[in-house]
Amino acid sequence: MALQWFRVPKDIVFGENALEYLSTLEGKRATLVTGGSSMKRFGFLDEAKAQLEKAGMEVSIVDGVEPNPSVETVLRGGKEMAEFNPDWIIAIGGGSALDAAKIMWVFYEYPDSKFEELVAGKFPQLRKKAKFIAIPSTSGTASEITAFSVITDTENHIKYPLVSYEITPDIALLDPALPAKMPAHITANTGMDVMTHAIEALVSTNATSYTDPMAVESIKLVYDNLPLAYEKADHMEARNNMHNASTLAGMAFTNSSLGLVHSLAHKIGGELGITHGLANAVLLPYIVEYNKKATDKFSYLEKTLGKSDLIESLKELNKKVGIPTSLKEITEVDMSEEKFNEVLDRMSKNAFEDPCTLTNPRQSSVEDVKEIYKAAYYGVTASNI
Fold it and tell me: What is the pairing mode between strands 88-93 and 29-33?
């Protein structure tokens, strides 16, 4: 049996006013990395800067990280950091800001690194110049806890998942005040992304006795808290629990990997522009139905949660938070039958070849993937695939 690992950040700081932890850091300089305007608009960027200045640090800011961070952006950030020479790199914002900051860190410490080497999994040893803190503004991607980053080659229109334990943050800092500013539909989409992470981690072929308890606890927290966080944006207990659920799911899946839900969501997102969390949410019940033949963990989960039918309970949860039950009902992009069928064959092949397919509990095929897409599009059962 091959050796396995369980690796997570050294420290996880969580709870209300967690941003104040920044004032306890030791160092001379810190660089904050953020995305668009939301962290500025809601005052969190200024608050983080103020806390770092309380610690006696000089602070620089690298901003403008786009929703799909590009190679150019991470190279720019690495260069700006090299000019400032920070002891701490602190990413604050959504998953894009966190992902970008991880790779900026590499180019700061190793300016001569080649992006192609990172794509091939060849990462240098970090922490020679700086340590890394991740402060998520959404309860969803779990980038604050993972060894993953997704960077886009805009010239060739390819998204590259980069993976190395070197880019796992040193500290994950979870303050529920940040996601409390999210609009309801983002709360829903990111919350169901958490659910998908947790369920796929639980049934992954790489799941272990270390990852399973975290996945199950995350699932419980989402069931109990997502509707409340969706209905009451400033319900701090629900927000705190959803933040913890996201991080627990991240701890599970970064060590066990994922499955077909993510494979299919990655490709339909790339082809039709559907938001990642929304795609996961709609696909999840259909792929649970498809995978049920291959694992008894869904039955175990039903017993643990007291749910008589996991698939129906997931559909009900989606409805509670305003998520449609089929792909054709999605309105954020053009989901016409013509558009869907136009990309179906290519999308199915690419989804089958996605790395997440490797750890799905049931062995699939391009034809199976195509049938799952069709079941989820039309809202019909996947049990006969």
Answer: parallel
